[in-house]
Amino acid sequence: MVSTYLSYDLVVRDLKSSLNRVASDAETERLSAYYKDNIDKVTSVDEFLDDYRLYSYAMKAYGLEDMTYAKAFMKKVLESDLNDSESYANKLTDERYRNFALAFQFVGQIKDVQTNAQETAIVDGYKQAQVDLAGDVEAETKYYETAIDTVTSADQLVKSKRLFNYVLEAYGIDRGYYTNDHFVKILTSDTSDPNSYVNQLVTNNAANSAAFLKMAQAFNFNADGSLSAATAQTADQKESTVYLYVDGTQSYVSEYTLAREKKYYAAKMATITSVSELTSDQRLFDYVKTAFQFDVGMTSSVFKSIVTSDLTDPNNYAVTNGGAAWVAVAQKFNFDTAGNVKAGYAAQQDVQLIETNSAYATFYDDKDVERMDSMIDYYKKKLSDLTDVDVLLGNAALRPILLKPFGIESGEFTDAELRKVLTSDITDPKSYANRSRDERLVKLAEAFNFDGNGDASVPLLAQNQLTITRTAKDYIINKIRFLEGDDKTKAKTAAEAETKYYQEKIQTVHTVGDLLADRRLMDVVLGAYGFDPAKVSDAFLKQIFTSDLEDKKSFVNQQTDENWTELLASFNFDGDGNLTRETVGTVQQRGTALETAHKYLRQSLEQSEGESNQGVRLALYFQRMAPTLTDAYGLIADSALLEVFRVTYGFPSEFSSMDVDVQAKIVKKNLDLADLQDPDKVKRLLQRFTAMYDMENSTTDPVLAVFGDGSAGISGDLLMSIASLKSG
C-alpha cells in the first residue's frame, strides 16, 4: 500500500501538472467550458440559480457543494451588499459565504457620472486653466507693450492680427462683424469733431459705438492714418488699454495682476495731491478698498471723512464712526482736514505705502477665491446626483468647469456635438470622440461616465469596484496576520494608509504603463495576492502584464503559482495595455471568473484524491487553506483543518469536543501559525501529519465523515455555522 505522504507528494511535486490532469478530464473540461462561455450571459441572481450547471460549478469551487440545494439561502447571500456590515453575508460566521458573494456582483456596481478621481482631475484642471490663462495674458501683454510702439500707421495696426486682436479684446469688440476699413476709419477719426466717422456712429447709436469711441480715444493717428504723436499710444493710453485687456480677459486675478496693480498704485500715489484725486481714479480707489477691506459700495465722501480726520481730536470722524480700524486707515495717509496732502509729505510715505501694498497682497484675490470655491462646491453638489447628460449640458453655470480644463472655448462646439462626445465609448476607436482626432474631446469623454443613451453608467476602471474593495481588504489582512497589541495597531494603521492611496490612485490608472510606473500602488496589489513586493522586480511585472492569458505558453501561464494569472486577470487591460470593457463581464469580472475556475479544479483534485485516500485530501486542503489563517479560532472552526492538527500532534478524536478556548490554547502552544506562511514548514508539518495519519488509519478511516460523500446534506456543525450570525 502506497503511503499517504508519497501519494500527497506525487500530487504536489508538480501541482500544475496535477491540476492540468484534472482539467483534461472530459467531464471537468465540459463543465469548465460551459461556465466560461455562459457566466457572462447571466444578468440576475435568479438566472444564475436556475442554471444548475453554472450554479453547482461555482458552489463546488468555493467549497459549498453541500449547500447547493439551499437556493433561497444562497440567494440572500448573493444579494447582500458587502459594503454594509449588517448585510446577510457579512453577518454569517462562515467566511466562505462572504467570499462567494465577493466573487459576483449581483448587487450591481455603482453608476457614477464622475468618480472622485475624475472629479478631482477636472477641478484641478479648471484651476490650472486659470493659471495658464494668467500666463497667456502676461505673455500677450508683454508682446503688446513692446510691439505697439513699433506701429507707424492705423492700417499697419489693423492688419497686425495678434496686435489688433489684443486691442479688440481690451475694448470688447468682435472682429468678425467688421471690415478692416471700418476699423481704420474709427482709428483715424477726430474724436473732437462731432461729424467724424466714430462720432456719427455714436450719434446714430450704432452697435458697439461706445466701445469704438473709447478705442479711438486710445490711439494717436491722423486722418490719413499716420501717427499724430511719437508713438501710436502714450504711456497712459497704453496702460489704460492693457488694464482693460487684463481685467476683461482673466476670470480670476493672478500674481501678474497683483504686480501690475502694485506698480500702478505706487506710480500714481506719488503724484496725488488731494483725496479727490485719489477717489476720482477708480483703479486707485478700488486698490485702497481692497487693501483696507472696505465695502465695494463705500463712497468717496465717507473715505475722505476718514482720511481727513483730525487724529488729535478724540472725537474725530474716524474714531467715532469706525473705531480703531478706521483710525489705522487714516494713519496710512497724509491728508489735512481740507483733503490736501500735508506740506512736506507725499500722500503716502514709504512705510505707509509698503503697509498698504502688503495689505492689498493679502486680500486682493479673496473674492475671486471665494467665487471659485463657490463655483466648485456648486459643481460637486450638482454632479453628486446628476444622472443625465442633457441636464449637465443644460446647466450654464457648470459650463466653465466642464470646458475650461480641456481648453475648449464656450461656443466652439454645439450642445449636440458635446453630447456625442460625452456619450462616446472611449475604448471604441469608432466612437465620435475618437474619430474627431481632437485630443481635447477625447479627454473630455474620459472625464465622464455616460452610456450611449446619455445616462450615468458604471465607471470603467483598471479594476472594478468589488475587486478594489477586495484587494484593499486582503492587503490589510495579510499585513496584520498573527500580530497582536500595539504591533497590530501600528501595522493596521500603516496598511490602511496604503490601501487608501491604492483606492484613490487606481481610479487614475488608464494603461499598464500607468500601473507599473507607480510601484507603491502595485505593491498593495502584490501584497493582497500574497506576494512579497521586495522579491518581485519591475522586469518580472512587465513580463506578467504583457502576457496573453489565453496563450498557455505565455509568461504568466508558465508560473507555478496561479495567483499570478488571477492577479493579471483582475485588471481591465487589453493586449495593448489600454483599458477595455471586454474584460469587465456582467455578474463576474474576468479575474474572479478565472479564480472560480482555478478553485473548481483544486476542489476537484482534492475530491478525486480523497476517493482513494482521505488523508491526501486532508493534506491538500490544509496546504491550500493554512496560509489564509489569521488565528487559532479560524483553524478550530474548520473541521478539516482541525483534524489535520489533531492527527499531527497525536490528540484523541475527542479533542474537537473540548471547550473552544481550551482548544485554542492547545493550538497556540503546539503550532506557530506564522509558520504556515512558509511552504517548507508546511511541507514538514504535512510529512508528520501523513505519517501519523497512516499510523492512526492502518485498518480503518475514521475521517471520512469530515468531508462527507458529496451528496446533498449538511452536518450539524455547518447548520450551526449558518444559523449563528455575528453578534457585533
Please give the structural blueprint.
Layout (H helix, E strand, L loop, with lengths): L3 H9 L2 H9 L2 H13 L6 H6 L1 H10 L9 H8 L9 H4 L3 H8 L13 H32 L6 H6 L1 H10 L9 H8 L9 H7 L5 H9 L17 H15 L5 H15 L5 H6 L1 H10 L8 H8 L9 H14 L19 H14 L2 H19 L4 H6 L4 H5 L11 H8 L9 H5 L2 H8 L18 H16 L4 H21 L6 H6 L1 H10 L9 H8 L17 H7 L20 H23 L1 H12 L6 H6 L1 H10 L11 H11 L8 H18 L7 H4 L8 H8 L5
Helix pairs in contact: 1-35, 2-34, 3-34, 5-34, 9-15, 11-15, 13-14, 18-21, 28-29, 28-31, 29-31, 33-34, 34-35, 35-37, 35-39, 37-39
Please state roughly what percent of the residues sit in beta strands, choosing from under 5%, 5-15%, 15-25%, 25-35%, 35-45% or over 45%. Answer: under 5%
Total beta-strand segments? 0
Alpha-beta content class: mainly alpha
Molecular shape: elongated
Low-pLDDT parts are 708-728
| Chain oligomer state | single chain
Q: Report the C-alpha radius of gyration, rounded.
A: 39 Å
Distance between the first and last residues' Cα: 50 Å
DSSP helix fraction: 55-70%
Largest sheet: none
Give the integer mean of the pLDDT values: 91
List the total number of helices.
41
Protein name: DUF1217 domain-containing protein
Pfam families: DUF1217
Organism: Ciceribacter thiooxidans
Description of the molecule:
- Helix 13 (197-203) packs antiparallel against helix 14 (209-217).
- The longest helix has 32 residues, at 116-147.
- Mean pLDDT is 91; it is low at 708-728.
- 59% of the residues lie in helices and 0% in strands.
- The chain is an all-alpha fold.
- The protein has 41 helices and no strands.
